[in-house]
Amino acid sequence: MTIKKRPMTPDGTSAERRKSRRFPVVVPIEVSWRGKDGIAVKEGAVARQVNANGGFLKMSSYPALGSRVTLANFLSAQTAEARVLAAPDSRQGVANGIVVELTAPNESFWGVDLQVNKTAVELQNLEKALRCEDIDLHLMREYGDAVDHIRTTTETLQRLRKCQLGGSDTGELLSVLATDRIRRASNLCLEVIADLDAGRVRQESESIDELQRAIQHLQQRLRQSGKTQATVRLNASSEE
Questions:
Q1: CA neighbours within 13 Å on the CB side: how many for 127?
Q2: How far is it, in rounded angstroms, from Cα 140 to Cα 87?
Q3: Which residue of 2, 49, 126, 172 has the lowest C-beta tally within 10 Å?
Q4: Burial class for 110, CB neighbours closer than 10 Å (0-12, 13-18, 19+)
């Protein structure tokens, strides 16, 4: 079998004329194939750059160019058939893995990581398109803030997933999410104040009562938290 060689970067993200853009993911995969002697071989891999048609799999041992392989997604337990398009010994620039093409395009095979990254890119493209239209700047700023929030949360969730897969502690990343939530809550309060000053809020709205109750509850919890932290600091200083 002869396959035309095309330049690629080490991670398989070259400027080759692929059918659609690849997106970064971290998905544990098991690759199965038949070796030259006909013996079944299985090797662990990590999908790093993918799309509905295939992608780049990082792995230490790999099948030969043109081999038919079976891919098993460890997270979803889905399987898919694929063909090896490139390997380190068959295409210049390919290292530490293989490039595969799925026998049947299957975007869902790669799991939620691909969907999340695709959605983030689509939101960014939509934001660029909206900026070209005659849209109120206040609305554009609000849309931009929402996209930034989605992007930040997505990145943190992906890091959380890596920690969970590796058995690492996720406490610090959860604190990052909580800190970002506090920042956004503060900004929202400022925006509500601006809406009140501009007369854009109807005082008879039920949402006003809900907001007041939520703020009162939050104030109580903040005071309790402040007292608890003060007690902890006092106890720590007395032990020194």
A1: 19
A2: 45
A3: 2
A4: buried
Q: How is residue 122 written in tokens?
A: 């689509």
Backbone region of residue 131 per phi and psi (left: phi > 0; alpha: psi in -120 to 50; beta: other values): alpha
Q: 101 pairs with which residues across the strands?
A: 54, 83
User: Residue 83: which of 33, 133, 10, 123 has the closest Cα?
Assistant: 33
Predicted TM-score (pTM) of the model is 0.59
Reading the chain (240 residues) residue by residue, the pLDDT tens digits are 444 444 444 444 444 455 678 888 888 999 999 988 889 999 999 999 999 999 999 998 889 889 999 999 988 889 999 999 998 876 655 678 999 999 999 989 998 878 888 887 888 888 788 877 777 777 788 888 888 888 788 778 778 877 877 788 888 888 888 888 898 899 889 988 988 898 888 777 788 889 999 999 999 999 888 888 777 677 777 666
| Residue 46 near residue 26, CB atoms below 8 Å | yes
Rounded CA gap, 24 and 143, in Å?
24
What residues contact residue 202 under an 8 Å CB cut-off, 6+ apart? 208
Q: How far apart are CA 41 and CA 115, in angstroms?
A: 30
Cα separation of 72 and 79, whole Å?
4
